[in-house]
């Protein structure tokens, strides 16, 4: 009977040690799970911030494109006006460059 009691005691100790190890393992797993959840929450927040930055960048880019279109239109208008002024002044400039159009005192 003493032998059976010893085996039961030894088995009980073995089960208790296994249970203790499992509890420690579960506690470690729980801590890891909490850390993973914390990281996932931070990642989700970072993703929201990145999305907000992308949306802001898209709006600013659209605004900048509008300004560029306005600038290109203005530059085109300036070139057209400059071409018109050049065409208007060209006959006058040509006549000024002809020595026959200069006053007699300059010849």
For the structure shown, list the relevant keywords.
1 helix; 0% strand; 107 residues; mainly alpha; rod-shaped
Low-confidence stretches: none
The SSE order reads: H
State mean pLDDT (0 to 100 scale).
86
How much of the sequence lies in strands comes to under 5%
Please summarize the sheet with the most strands.
none
Helix content: over 70%
Based on Cα principal axes, name the global outline: rod-shaped
Label the structural class: mainly alpha
Tally of DSSP helical segments: 1
Distance between the termini: 146 Å
- What's the gyration radius in Å? 45 Å
Total strand segments: 0
Could you walk me through the main structural features you see in this protein, from its secondary elements to its overall organization?
The chain is mostly helical and 107 residues long. It has one helix at 2-97. The longest helix has 96 residues, at 2-97.
Quick take:
This protein has 107 residues and is mainly α. Helices cover 90% and strands 0% of the residues.
